[in-house]
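Hey, can you fold this one?
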Amino acid sequence: MTMAGDVPLPAFFFYLTTVLLGLCLGSFATALAWRLPRGVPLAKKARSSCPSCGHDLRARDLVPLFSWMTLGGHCRYCRAPVGWRYPLIELATLALCIIFHFTFGFSAVTLCAFALAPALVAMADIDFRHKILPDVLNIAVAAAGLAAIAVASLEAFDAPAHLLSMLGQAAAAGLLYGAGSFALRYIFLKATGKEALGLGDVKFFAAAGIWLGLSADSLAAFLLLSGALGVVIALLWKKIMREAEFPFGPALIAAFLAVLLWRGLYFVVI
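Sure. Predicted structure:
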């Protein structure tokens, strides 16, 4: 990217922008992870507060990562401990943004990929804790994919034709991934009386299809990786949590990210 007059901006500027955006999105991811399972509307303009004493938090208490570190992992007002969960969510979101930057470069399309980071991290956290993948986050993943396609089409030689072609592929892939996973869920339920996939998982399959496209390699890799990771999580969950039912969403998310980083963005003109 360049400034007016074709004066190039230093690479440091884009790295710093990615870090700052990643930290801000990480803070947003913590809000998603806390609000959505409790049914608190995202549009509600409630002040953030300490869950222990209820004291409203000020701007200096909400600086991603740094507030937690400077306060030693405690609330400024009641000194109640604040666990590792929130800084880990922020770090994971930041790490994803940095990985996207190094993999795809810094562009308008990459900014759409950045929007994936808080949604995916919040989904993994929520599924681990509540065994649900909220519809609003599945919609966010799908919407970010459609936005990326629209932005990428602006750089194509024949933008309208490229947009229609890529939207057609995205819709077909979303339908294929979603219908295929729903059929798997239905067959397994009829055969065993148990759900192999939750409906949230099925919706995530459909949203992932928009990003991964109609590539047979991507679909095969996604299915194999998610299955293998699901087995690992199931074994660990049963051993550690002593529960037969385990969250499958984190396996889907990890597999989706691995394939996306491996195959790249199919809708970007090279």
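The mean pLDDT is 89. Let me know if you want another pass with a different chain boundary.
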